[in-house]
Every structure is written in structure tokens, then in C-alpha cells.
Amino acid sequence: MSTIPTTFNRNFPSYTVVGGREVFNSTGLSVVLLNRGGRYARRGLFHDFEKTGFDTVVSVEPEPAHYDLEELSARFPFVRFVIPHTRISLGEQINLAVSELDSPLFFVLWNDLKMIAGGTAHRMAERLTRSAESNGKGKGKSKFMRLCTVPVIQNSRHDTIPTIIAPVIRQKKIQTRFLNPSSEGLPSLYPFDGVGIYDRGRFIQLGGFDGTITNSFWQLMDFGFRAYLWGEEISLSQTLKFSYETAIPAEDDSAGSDYSRFYLKNLAPVFRNDSAYLPMRRFPGFLFKADNGIFGAWDDFSESRRWVNTNSFRWRCNPKTIANYWKLESPNKES
């Protein structure tokens, strides 16, 4: 089993950076731009970012990189193009981009998303800043309201789609339901498609995304569960609205080694008093479902026990408490 990162992992595969050494503004909010592939009007997209007033943009380029990077970096010197030399997962792309940023907030967006509402970057950051009166009462030392703020998202026909994710746990099995973004501040288990405004300090303290999980669905699930288990918040802002210009991306929730890692880190640990531990009694059930033999299963289990022990005092609740946030009665998954 690959070692689970205990802190924010800055050991990335080799990559190249083109341009982007200038800071356009000082709002405290930058963009992490993910590229799904295909040909999009990149010049128009960067022009929109410029008008919105984001500090910088880190664009994680697909492989092979676009031919026009030198031209674009000259026209938009606040855009930094990051080119990984190997294919990396969704979470690793975000982690890599965050390591290239200095702003306290960053907005993860895709190149096939178009902003409908939200205002300027300054206004977005302002909405997420705690008032002076509440600063001393907030969790941790951050002056911002939460770990991640997610937007309302529409399809290409401008119909609002259910992108608020709620977990349902029944008989130790996890399922998800997708809810409509119906009210301000509605919690979401994780940011759909990774899209949202993140508090960079909290993100790094949480460890970012686990690069040892490669399936984006389980990577997002792991991030979201870890956030809530450790006392963080991911919730909706109805002032932010975006629409997909292409088909809505499908999620692959098939079980496998990535699910096993998610299970051992998030569902198997027991929270008691003020800390968590992974009890040995969980191993027989885990072994029964494992597909890598007794020695492989034991290595996975032992590594997860060490990781839970290292972080044991960061737990604030158990998985059932998280599921109760949404007060859902039906275990059926909706999409």
C-alpha cells in the first residue's frame, strides 16, 4: 500500500511551469483551473478572469500541453500554466496547483464552466470573511467562514442540477444522495466535481486530497469525510452560480482498492471521548472483502492504523453523526 500522507504532500511528479509570475490583483482569491480536454475559448476565459479581478490563475494543463501557451502567457501574465509530465488524478492536480499559489483563498473551476453570477473576486472573498466580532469565536485561526464554499451549478440548458451531496450509512455501507441547492448554507459532503472556493490554510492543514487514491469519486469522498470528521465545513453559497457548457461529468463509484482505503480511513475508525482509533476487530471483516490476499490486506490495515493513530486527536465526531446532518430517511441513491 502506498503511504497515506499525514501532512500536505508536496512531493509531486515532475512538471513544467510557463509564465504567471505576476499578481494581477490583491483580493486574496485566485483560481485553480482544471482542463477537461477539448477546444475551448481559452483567451475569452482568461479575459473573464481578468475582468472578475482574481489575483492569479494556475491552469493545470492536459498532456500534451496546448501549443499556444507562450502566446497566452504573454497576453495574460497573471496566468501560470502548470504542465505535469505524467498523468495525475483530480486531487493531485488541485494539490499541485495549490503549491503554486500564495493567496489565502482559491477557486477550483473547470474550463467548461461559465460564471452566471458571483460578482467580483473582491466581493466573493468579502462574503467569506468573518466579521470582526465573530473572528475570535470561529474554529481555528482562519478569518474565513469555512473550509470550502460550493456554488449552484446548472446544465447547458440552464436547469439547476442536484450537486449537494449527502451521505447515507446503513449497515456499515455508504451511499450518496444528490440534493438540489435549495437553501443558503446547505451542507455538502464534498464539492461536486471539485468545484468550490477553498480556504488554502485549512486545505493544507487537512492534508489536501489523498494522492494514493486515484478514483476521483473516492478521492472526493475521502476529502469530504475527513473534513467533517475533523470538524470542518463544506456548504453552499447561492450567490455563486455556474453552468456547464458540455455534458455533466459522470461519477464512477465502483468499489475497489480506492474504496478500501476510503473505508479504513473514514468508516472503520472508532471515535470515543476525544480521539479515534482503528480497532483490531475490524480486520476480519476487512480481510473477507479484500482482494489482495491476507498479507496485502494486513499491510493495508496496518498502514491505516498508523495513520489513524497519528491523527487520532483531530477527530471530532463519527460517520453516523455526519450522516445525521442531512436527516435523510431513505438509503436509496439518487442522481
Protein architecture, described:
- The strands form 3 sheets. Strands 1-4-3-2-5-10-7-11-6 form a 9-stranded mixed beta sheet, sandwiched between helices.
- Helix 7 packs parallel to helix 8 (257-267).
- Among the domains are: 13-111, Rossmann fold (3-Layer(aba) Sandwich); 257-320.
- The protein has helices at residues 42-52, 69-75, 90-99, 121-128, 132-135, 200-206, 216-229, 257-267, 283-289, 293-310, 319-323, and strands at residues 15-18, 29-34, 57-60, 79-84, 105-110, 113-117, 148-154, 164-170, 173-179, 196-199, 234-244, 270-272, 275-277.
- The longest helix has 18 residues, at 293-310.
- The chain has 11 helices and 13 strands.
- With 335 residues, it is of the alpha/beta class.
- The radius of gyration is 20 Å and the shape is globular.
